[in-house]
């Protein structure tokens, strides 16, 4: 009898879980859209035509969608890496530096090894980036697990060290002598993903990212190791009482997180740039931390917010081209949308409380 009663409730329960991030995202986007209309009107432009022009630039046709997707792939992978560490109770704020060393490792393997068979060369580039980013993050996780070094501080400071190290290499020992700017040699063609949509930078790396999203979701939500990492993050004391090796869980979760961030950096090289240069990933690591926080460190939530973020960024560029409104305005809008997402539950509770009080007053008057 118990089995018959629980089966019908399984699907609605899962749908309810999926509806939560969707509802939070929709509330935030609606709030941001209303604010955007007000700001655009203050600039002297018609809100709706201007916003539609931005959306057409981001999603108007196959080329626009492909362009928006191509920009967001490295960001999505990096955000998944940050979220993975957050879920395990490790606050990896070093995504920017890990992305940079991953990009540098992929650029070195792509330029100085080969040319090889394309699939093998790409695999080597991705593996080098994952190992480099994972090793850096695992080392910082080891400091936390065995020496008690605060990972927020260590990962934050590591950004400056790693970015400056990569900048030195790009301007010094590994600089391409044919270019004035600080960049490495161009990678071989066999180290570049093939383009799948003409006139865009959307490459077959899309399939790799799709596989990484599924693998990250399974590892985090369905695997035994993922359960141990989640338990370590939510209740270390209980996890230790259950026989989970806390130190090992922290180090391995950071290793996976850093590997994903490094892979995000490798996609910048192998999908679009074709080399490492000093500004290759500026800001992506910090955006990834933001998306991981807003997405509640869940793979589905991060995926949804990465999509919203990419559309907003692309739309802002479209609005700037059509009207001349500076794209920096998008930063203000994105900030407001994120605040709205975080404050959604409190705002809805406040509105509900006001409605309840208003109803009580009306009933007394009647």
UniProtKB/TrEMBL annotation:
<feature type="transmembrane region" description="Helical">
    <location>
        <begin position="202"/>
        <end position="220"/>
    </location>
</feature>
<keyword id="KW-0472">Membrane</keyword>
<feature type="transmembrane region" description="Helical">
    <location>
        <begin position="98"/>
        <end position="114"/>
    </location>
</feature>
<feature type="transmembrane region" description="Helical">
    <location>
        <begin position="27"/>
        <end position="48"/>
    </location>
</feature>
<feature type="transmembrane region" description="Helical">
    <location>
        <begin position="68"/>
        <end position="86"/>
    </location>
</feature>
<dbReference type="Pfam" id="PF02653">
    <property type="entry name" value="BPD_transp_2"/>
</dbReference>
<protein>
    <submittedName>
        <fullName>ABC transporter permease</fullName>
    </submittedName>
</protein>
<dbReference type="GO" id="GO:0005886">
    <property type="term" value="C:plasma membrane"/>
</dbReference>
<keyword id="KW-1133">Transmembrane helix</keyword>
<feature type="transmembrane region" description="Helical">
    <location>
        <begin position="152"/>
        <end position="170"/>
    </location>
</feature>
<feature type="transmembrane region" description="Helical">
    <location>
        <begin position="331"/>
        <end position="355"/>
    </location>
</feature>
<dbReference type="InterPro" id="IPR001851">
    <property type="entry name" value="ABC_transp_permease"/>
</dbReference>
<feature type="transmembrane region" description="Helical">
    <location>
        <begin position="251"/>
        <end position="270"/>
    </location>
</feature>
<dbReference type="GO" id="GO:0022857">
    <property type="term" value="F:transmembrane transporter activity"/>
</dbReference>
<keyword id="KW-1003">Cell membrane</keyword>
<feature type="transmembrane region" description="Helical">
    <location>
        <begin position="120"/>
        <end position="140"/>
    </location>
</feature>
<keyword id="KW-0812">Transmembrane</keyword>
């Amino acid at each position: 009898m118990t089995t018959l009663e629980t089966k019908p409730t399984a699907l609605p329960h899962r749908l309810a879980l999926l509806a939560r991030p969707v509802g939070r995202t929709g509330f935030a986007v609606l709030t941001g859209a209303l604010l955007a209309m007000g700001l655009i009107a203050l600039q002297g432009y018609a809100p709706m035509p201007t916003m539609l022009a931005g959306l057409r630039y981001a999603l108007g046709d196959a080329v626009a969608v492909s362009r928006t997707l191509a920009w967001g792939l490295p960001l999505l992978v990096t955000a998944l890496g940050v979220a993975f560490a957050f879920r395990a109770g490790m606050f990896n704020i070093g995504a920017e530096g890990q992305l940079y060393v991953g990009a540098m490792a992929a650029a070195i393997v792509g330029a100085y090894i080969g040319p090889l068979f394309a699939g093998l060369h790409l695999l080597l580039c991705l593996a080098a980036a994952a190992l480099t980013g994972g090793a850096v993050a695992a080392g910082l996780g080891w400091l936390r697990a065995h020496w008690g070094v605060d990972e927020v501080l260590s990962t934050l400071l590591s950004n400056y060290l790693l970015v400056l190290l990569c900048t030195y290499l790009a301007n010094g020992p590994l600089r391409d002598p044919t270019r004035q700017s600080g960049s490495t040699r161009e990678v071989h063609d066999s180290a570049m993903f093939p383009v799948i949509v003409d006139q865009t930078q959307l490459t077959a790396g899309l399939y790799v990212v799709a596989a990484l999203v599924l693998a990250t979701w399974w590892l985090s939500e369905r695997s035994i190791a993922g359960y141990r990492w989640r338990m370590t993050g939510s209740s270390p004391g209980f996890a230790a009482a259950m026989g989970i090796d806390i130190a090992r869980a922290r180090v391995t979760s950071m290793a996976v997180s850093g590997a994903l961030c490094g892979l995000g950096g490798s996609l910048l090289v192998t999908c679009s740039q074709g080399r490492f240069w000093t500004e290759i990933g500026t800001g992506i690591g910090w955006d990834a931390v933001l998306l991981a926080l807003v997405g509640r460190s869940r793979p589905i939530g991060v995926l949804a917010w990465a999509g919203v973020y990419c559309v907003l960024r692309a739309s802002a560029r479209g609005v700037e081209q059509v009207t001349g409104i500076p794209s920096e305005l998008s930063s203000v809008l994105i900030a407001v949308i994120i605040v709205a997402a975080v404050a959604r539950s409190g705002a809805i509770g406040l509105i509900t409380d006001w409605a309840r009080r208003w109803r009580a007053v009306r009933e007394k008057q009647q």
